[in-house]
Amino acid sequence: MTPSHPPPPAPAQTHPLGGVAAGLALVLVAVLLGAATQRITNPQATLASATPDVSWNGNTTTVTVTTDRMRFHPDTITVAAGNRLIIELANTDRRRHDLVLATGPKSPSLASGHTARLDAGVIGGTVEGWCSLPGHRQAGMRLTITATGTTAPAAAAGHDHTTAPGSTTSALDAMTQPGDGFVARDATAPTRPAGRLHRLDLRVHEVQREVAPGVRQKLWTFNGTTPGPVLRGRVGDTFEITLINDGTVDHGADFHAGALAPDEPMRPIDPGQRLTYRITATKAGIWMYHCSTMPMLHHIGNGMYGAVIIDPPDLPAVDREYVLIQSELYLGGDGEPGDLAKMQAEQPDAVVFNGYVAQYAHRPLTARPGQRVRIWVLNAGPNRTSAFHVVGAHFDTVYREGQWQLRRSDPGAAQLLDLTPAAGGFVETVLTEPGQYPFLSHLMVDAERGARGAIQVR
């Protein structure tokens, strides 16, 4: 099962049907090979069997299985009961994949363009297979082997390495107070740097982080934090991003602030690799960036997101300026990433601002009476809508998804900033009286899950 190492694959063709034709050809080869069996004239005396009560009949079936777009092709293999099955696994995807069978055999993790030979043993019933890379099985990378001429029971399907939707490995109580030494993430918006070219190394780190008092989660992060660093610039600025994958699985980076073909610059890269590309900001707004690796639901839901602020032209100065990024937590097992099954079921354990449950309820943002406060808000999701509201305040300025919806001189005011996943904007208000002004997502179930904080005015 040692992977071969062919020359690097040729660059992808630009013809829109090229990839489809190649994929169809590979599937056709798999079907033709799957139909062929060969007679073994010198059978091994002790050949492993997928079903113990079925003996090898001396025949071997060889099938080519390709991986592409988070699927096995074909994803169902049928052989005669008693045949030995050999799977020639070919990874035609741009991401790593493997194949694990419930009966034990497992291929190596294959890079794009690599192949491996997997001996599935003697088939006497139904055997389930899947890709074991994080989230791939839950995203649909499954394969089924069936045997004709037998009613043998199916082999055990194995463990998904996820907890059941709605369950957690640590009790999360959104009302729990953190310890005296707790330090909230600094929500102060970064100042716009000088110059028009901004360089940033984004390193993928897999870290254990506290996400609520007494609750830790294994997160996939950019530069060790969730959210990742907040970038800032103006229209016309260029960002040179170098993604460095120090993780254990493939990751990529999709920067919404840039408008360019994503095929190459946003492609996932393997552990140990790096990728540099440039984007030029042509439009203003607060833009999301996130991991581009499928299933993106899993990678975003496990912490791989951040924000890029591109100031609207002639943006007025304010006294205080903050950035809040709303997201959800889906706790996985001990030492495991977030639970994809919970993400797919839309059952978050918590909804948070800047990566931690209710942190600004315990360590409020601050302002002085009469100061103008601007709050940038990005909803990283991946699933929940945000309805940002400050109790006791009117928003006299609202900027949402690149459009001014209210200006200071307008006679009206707004009570919330509503944002679907990946949307963003900012609001401004003047808090005239001393006191504590709570803020929250006005989807009350999410506020109770931790999407809340406060501004202390004194």
Summary, kept brief:
The protein has five helices and 28 strands.
SSE topology sketch:
Elements (H helix, E strand, L loop, with lengths): L17 H18 L1 E3 L19 E10 L2 E3 L2 E5 L3 E8 L8 E2 L13 E8 L4 E4 L11 E7 L48 E16 L2 E8 L8 E4 L3 E8 L8 E2 L18 E7 L4 E6 L5 H6 L3 E7 L8 E10 L10 H6 L4 E4 L5 H4 L2 E3 L4 E10 L4 E5 L6 E4 L2 E4 L10 E3 L4 E7 L4 E7 L2 H6 L2 E6 L1
Parallel strand pairs: 2-5, 4-9, 10-13, 12-17, 18-21, 20-28
Antiparallel strand pairs: 1-2, 2-3, 5-7, 6-8, 8-9, 10-11, 13-15, 14-16, 16-17, 18-19, 21-26, 22-25, 22-27, 23-24, 23-26, 27-28
Could you describe the 3D structure shown?
The protein is mostly beta strands and 458 residues long. It is 9% helix and 37% strand. It has five helices and 28 strands. The protein has helices at residues 18-35, 296-301, 340-345, 359-362, 444-449; strands at residues 37-39, 59-68, 71-73, 76-80, 84-91, 100-101, 115-122, 127-130, 142-148, 197-212, 215-222, 231-234, 238-245, 254-255, 274-280, 285-290, 305-311, 320-329, 350-353, 365-367, 372-381, 386-390, 397-400, 403-406, 417-419, 424-430, 435-441, 452-457. The strands form six sheets. Strands 19-18-21-26-23-24 form a six-stranded mixed beta sheet. Strands 1, 2, 3, 5 and 7 form a five-stranded mixed beta sheet that branches. The termini are far apart. Mean pLDDT is 86; it is low at 1-46 and 158-169.
